[in-house]
Amino acid sequence: MQDGGLPSEHDRTGPTPVDITTRTLPDFVSVTRGPGMRSNLFTGLDTAKGLAVAWQKPLIGVHHMQAHALTPRLVSALDAYKELNEPEAEYLPNGTVDRNPAQTHVSPDFPFLSVLASGGHTLLIHSASLTDHRVLGSTNDIAIGECLDKIARVVLPSEVLQATKSTMYGALLEDFAFPVSSREEPASHDTPTLTSNLPVNSADKYKYTSDHQYSWYEVPLNHEDSMLKNVTAWGWALNRPLSKSGGGIKINSLEMSFSGITTMVERIVRYGMDPITRKLNKKERAATDVSLEERRDLARETMRAAFEHVASRVVLSLQSQQELMEAKPAVVTAGGVAANSFFRHM
């Protein structure tokens, strides 16, 4: 219908019908069964059950963490399948498209490492095959996502917490620590627009287009260098957990811990620190006495300490296992915390 006139013949026919008999049903329906948050898991389970019943296909439960580890290969396989259906795909003599799965490459190649970081888990996993997964390291207390959520509730200004309807406190903490204006490349006639022809979602493209966001960050040479760089103008410093500053007993283990960072930040906000003695004040301070600048530094330093802690475990795992060093494996990040841009950068 145009300009109030009667519908044309084309309008009355509606969209072109789709022949559903040409659709191929899956061999089975798989869904993550746990562990994880009950409400989130049930959303997927209920949907999968409905599809399995409607299609009369088997329902297969998958371990939540295994699904995270293998998701990159699933995405890669789907992309490879799409390429086989492109117009330039190779056709066989009978006119059909050559869809030989053996000729497609699925990445990342085995073996590879996965950092599964979320509100409920922090795991470093070695994946040797589809069914061979080994946990190399994990947190001995709270997960990194829970750490960020707890600190966000303490560090974020009250007006920010009151204005938001979101419960994704970790994401709010990142937005507060790195405002959008600080993430944008300053406009300059001498600086070309950041563009790239690299594949979408590649690590190289991400690094190429986002390095300017964290130009202030320098990778520490060692633990001692890290401790020197971590001292702030406020007198406090957030050092990596399980490092020499904390006794050093587990400095070379693949174990992780995040409760110490949470406790330290809570004390800094509550008491403040004497910049000369570098000791916590004995008298509590009001929330209004914590400046916006100090809160932003706390948010940044929290993420830096937590993310460096995880990154150090990845490096240790590579150094401690000869077969991994020789394979030069990919490192996959998954879970809610993997959405953090600073985490991916590091």
Account of the 3D structure:
The protein has 346 residues and is an alpha/beta fold. It is 41% helix and 10% strand. The protein has two domains: 26-76, no CATH class; 114-181 and 201-345, Nucleotidyltransferase, domain 5 (2-Layer Sandwich). It contains 13 helices and six strands. The strands form two sheets. It has a four-stranded mixed β-sheet, with helices on both faces. It has a two-stranded parallel sheet with strand order 1-2.
Name some characteristics of this structure.
Nucleotidyltransferase, domain 5; alpha/beta; 346 residues; single chain; metal ion binding; two-stranded parallel ribbon; KAE1/TsaD; metal-binding; transferase; 4-stranded mixed β-sheet; Peptidase_M22_CS; 13 helices; globular; 41% helix
Order of helices and strands: HEHEHEEEHHHHHHHHHEH
- Main sheet overview: 4 strands, mixed
Specify the number of helices. 13
In terms of per-residue confidence, which ranges show pLDDT below 50 for 5 or more consecutive residues?
A: 186-198
Under the CATH scheme, which class of the largest domain? Answer: Alpha Beta
Portion in strands:
5-15%
Care to give the gist of this entry?
The chain is of the alpha/beta class.
List the helices and strands and how they pair.
Blueprint: H1 9-13, E1 29-34, H2 38-55, E2 59-63, H3 64-84, E3 112-117, E4 122-127, E5 133-138, H4 144-155, H5 158-163, H6 169-177, H7 180-183, H8 203-210, H9 223-229, H10 259-271, H11 292-320, H12 322-327, E6 331-334, H13 341-345
Parallel strand pairs: 1-2, 3-6
Antiparallel strand pairs: 3-4, 4-5
Helix pairs in contact: 4-6, 4-10, 4-11, 6-11, 10-11
Enzyme class: transferase
InterPro entries: ATPase_NBD (IPR043129), Gcp-like_dom (IPR000905), KAE1/TsaD (IPR017861), Peptidase_M22_CS (IPR017860)
GO molecular function: metal ion binding; tRNA N(6)-L-threonylcarbamoyladenine synthase activity
